[in-house]
Amino acid sequence: VDTVTDDMRVAVIGAGMMGADHVRRITERISGARVVAVVDADAQRAAAVADSTPGAVARPDATEVLADPNVDALLIATPGQFHESILAPALERGLPVFCEKPLTLDAASSLRIVELEQKRDRPVVQVGFMRRFDAGFRRLKDVADQGALGELLLLHCRHRNASSHLVNSEALLIQDSVVHEFDIIAWLTGSELATIEVRKPRSSRHAPDGLADPQLVLIETESGVIADVEIFINARYGYEVSTEAVFEEGVAAIGQPTELVTRTSYAQSMSIAPTFVERFRDAYDTQLQRWVNAARNGAIDGPSAWDGYRAAVACEAGILAQASGERVRVGAAPTPDFYRNQVI
Ligand code: ISE
Predict the structure, then answer these.
(1) HSE on the CB side for 76, CA within 13 Å?
(2) Cα–Cα distances in Å, from 180 out to 205, 251, 259, 303?
């Protein structure tokens, strides 16, 4: 940490939508950390973010910040295909890391990361599955854990984006978007995922070439819960992540856009978030504050690289299911003890 301000000095790698949002969050909304470097291959983008962040400099690549003794921690917000090449040297150096999802794009590279991490004395990589910090998802998890409505049987999940220009392939739809459901369903049910099947209805005319949108992903857990996930990333009307959970003695629903209801001109309307940045803003804040607090002590307080690995295994199965139309088994390795006492 900075001996004068006592702040953890963070280098943010990737200055796109999420990277820039995290820089603002660290600078303006949470405590105990400040951004000292912003790295992006696009020099203008890095400069634009660094210039509006007191004390931060722009850098063209991660090599320098990885070796800089004045950098205490990393936040990785580049696209997933670049994560491994930053995570590996960060782990060698033992830097605390917050890594946006997905950890990596496939199971083999995620496995390499968790193997490298296990050479350290405890987990140091926290993965950005921010839904686990969302008030609604946490309440749903409490209902499931406390058994107030009996056993959980079914989940109906909707995941809609108004439009998504970055997700433009079948695989990326799974790795970038459905990866959240793989994580949250395993977390909510406290069970490993067992099988995945993907069905494609007729596609929207707003879907990009080569991508069927929407798609229906059916996920069965080892505990026998079935989740149907509608993923629709060109839904046009706004951003919606909502879930209805069916229990033996009732249902519980979260994520309905009810924050602001207006009545005017003989009509009633509710505001809907335009993107995940607004919808999950509080969850992102809580997630990062908890990471900063933990990382200052060399620990994590949230989803681990193992959760990232498990999600990567599910993504591989999901991509196979998407291409084949078959129901595909998800075969993650058993959780090592190293990752067992992570309670989130
Ligand atoms: C994006 O990368 C996210 O992580 C969002 O949460 C998700 O809703 C969106 O579909 C992804 O593209």
Answers:
(1) 29
(2) 25, 22, 23, 12
Q: Specify the ligand 1 atom closest to the Cα of 280.
A: 6
- Lookup: tokens for 316: 């591989």
> Is 180 close to ligand 1, i.e. is its CB under 6 Å away?
yes
Q: Tell me the pLDDT tens digit for each residue of 252-264.
A: 999 987 778 999 9
Residue owning the nearest CA to atom 3 of ligand 1: 177
Which residue blocks in 4-134 are alpha helix, DSSP H?
17-24, 43-51, 62-67, 83-93, 107-117
CA 179 to ligand 1: nearest atom: 4
Q: Does the structure show a pLDDT above 70 at 180? A: yes
Q: How many CB atoms lie within 10 A of CB 257?
A: 16
d(CA 284, CA 278): 10
161 lines ligand 1 (CB under 6 A): yes
Measured in angstroms, how far is the CA atom of residue 276 from the centroid of ligand 1? 7
